[in-house]
Amino acid sequence: GTPETFYEQVGGEATFHRIVARFYAEVAKDELLRPLYPEEDLSGAEERLRLFLMQYWGGPHTYSEQRGHPRLRMRHAPFKIGLAERDAWLRCMRIALDEEVDLAPEHRDQLWQYFEMAAHGMVNSWF
Ligand code: HEM
Q1: What ipTM was estimated for this complex?
Q2: Which residues contact 52 (CB under 8 A, 6 or more apart)?
Q3: Is residue 119 in contact with ligand 1, taking CB distance under 6 Å?
Q4: Is residue 76 within 6 Å of ligand 1 at its C-beta?
Q5: Is the C-beta atom of 25 inside 6 A of ligand 1?
Q6: Cys-Cys crosslink for 59: which of 8, 52, 54, 107, Cβ 3.0 to 4.6 Å?
Q7: Topology annotation, domain 10-121
Q8: Where are the alpha helices (DSSP H) in the chain?
Q9: Does the pLDDT at position 59 exceed 70?
Q10: What residue ranges do the domains of the chain occupy?
Q11: Which helix (H) or strand (E) holds 105?
């Protein structure tokens, strides 16, 4: 049959649900990141990141059905994202990947490499 997507290999929606829920639990405690999020309730942001990642890794395209083309750099333009914010974001994601799910090392490394690259690409404030 068709080769499994990365999305399926890591356990599908349940895995992304766990990673992103833990990620936002860490964001909620982070003094630098929390004030950047415009909504008091982080559940909308959580759903958007979960759906985006599911789509990116080969799962359902619900994100784009709801939000259109991701254009993530543009969507982050309203927020001041410097190196400290990037590092804080990655710290929260590292905790989620290491503590919340039990992935095969090659899957965890692949996700981590992507997040490092993507987070760096979101930096929009260099001084
Ligand atoms: C939205 C911060 C990196 C994916 C947001 C929002 C903020 C934010 C404040 C608005 C919250 C909302 O939607 O209500 C940051 C910071 C980052 C970062 C400080 C540090 C580098 C990333 C990365 C990804 C990502 C690396 C993807 C791998 C998203 C998505 C949304 C979002 C999908 C929702 C976009 C939409 O449909 O409106 N982010 N972000 N972010 N972020 Fe990030």
Answers
A1: 0.95
A2: 63, 67, 70, 72
A3: yes
A4: yes
A5: no
A6: 54
A7: Globin-like (1.10.490)
A8: 6-9, 13-28, 43-56, 62-67, 72-76, 83-95, 105-121
A9: yes
A10: 10-121
A11: helix 105-121
Q: Closest ligand 1 atom, CA of 39?
A: 14
C-beta separation of 86 from 123 below 8 A: yes
Residue with tokens 């395209």: 61
Q: Which of 1-5, 13-17, 51-55, 81-85 has the lowest mean pLDDT?
A: 1-5
CA–CA dist 34, 52 (Å, integer) = 20
Residue 94 to residue 83: CA distance in whole angstroms = 16
Backbone conformation region of residue 62, classed left if phi is above 0, alpha if psi is from -120 to 50, else beta: alpha
For ligand 1, atom 7, which residue shows the shortest CA distance? 37
Please answer whether residues 63 and 55 qualify as being in contact, where contact means their C-beta atoms are separated by less than 8 angstroms: yes
